[in-house]
Amino acid sequence: MRAILSLLVGLWLCVDCGLASSSASSSASSAATSEEGTSANLHLKLSEEAEAAAIEVNSYINSRCPSDDIFLGTMQQPHITLYLTEFLPNNVTCDASGSTSSVCADLGVIAPSLEAPPSLCEDDPVVLGALEVSGCYAMWEVVNSPCLQAMSDRVVNATYQLAVPNQTVPDWVEDLPEPTKSEKEALIKSFGSPNVFTQFAPHVTVGYDCSACVADALAGYTPPAVAPFVPTVLGMGTVGDYGTVVLGEDFADFPLGTAVELEMVPR
Q: How buried is residue 43: exposed, middle or buried, by Cβ count under 10 Å (0-12/13-18/19+)?
């Protein structure tokens, strides 16, 4: 924990120096074989307006695509993923005091400084962009920014040592062109996720349907306008199908930029 604290202090003082985005020094793949873990989605909660808009877009997709498997607001919660990986089972246990050497404890350490003055995000709020369809996923693009990139980098650097080592590369990565394929494979082996650091691409998932229905439904559709917002809550969510965050089943939530006491969420 002392080593993690030292790293976090350095990152806060030097968020633009490239330490987090290039890599942390040691690798989560030190073990020779993969172990079974518990998935957790470390994510940002949306503003009330953005959450309502994402639910509205998803409801529109649901009404036109019966095979859509995402149901925001009833089964899953809209969110922006910062880091999704499998953690060793003992490392995802949270207690009401937060006094545990786990992902919860480490997130409790960094949450106060993620939005503490001088805030990266006050002048660089979250902006929702265009709706996109990629494979089976319908996504509401989130414009990447120094704020979001730094948040993701620091969350990964604070917790990746607790992840299952040597995780399996998913099939969809094998189908990517180079150099993206090799970059994502290296990130999976070292950090347990293909979508961190240089491959971080923030978004809000609003649908999952492998037919052509979603692309047809969204053609010409204009999503609700959403004002830019500054994130206020970091969540540690239970992972559902397709990498979603299960509604009402967070392991814990952490208010950003305040003195943190672990806020347990009833399960």
A: buried
Cα–Cα distance measured from residue 197 to residue 188, given in angstroms and rounded to the nearest whole number: 11
DSSP 3-state of 128: strand
What's the predicted TM-score (pTM) here? 0.81
Under 8 Å between Cβ of 235 and 145: no
What φ, ψ does residue 215 adopt, rounded to 5°?
A: -60, -40
What whole-number distance in Å separates Cα of residue 265 and Cα of residue 267?
6
As a whole number, mean pLDDT of residues 113-136 equals: 80
**Cα-based angle 164, 247, 61 (whole degrees, multiple of 5):** 110
Residues with Cβ < 8 Å from 171, sequence gap 6 or more?
A: none
Q: Tens of pLDDT along 192-243?
A: 999 999 999 999 999 999 999 999 999 999 999 999 999 999 999 999 999 9
pLDDT tens digits for 125-184?
999 999 999 999 999 999 999 889 989 999 999 999 999 999 999 888 998 999 999 999
Q: Where does 14-85 have alpha helices with state H?
A: 19-22, 48-64
Phi, psi of 202 (to 5 degrees): -65, 145
- Following CA atoms 155, 157, 161, 166 in sequence, which dihedral angle do they give, to the nearest 10 degrees? 100
Eight-state DSSP code of residue 126: B
- Of the candidates 172, 173, 162, the one whose C-alpha atom is nearest the C-alpha of residue 91 is 162
Sequence-distant (6+) residues with CB within 8 A of 134 are none
CA-nearest of 74, 51, 194, 232 to 128 is 51
The DSSP-derived string for 217-263 is HHTT--PPP---B---EEEEEEB-GGG-BBTT--SEEEETTS----B
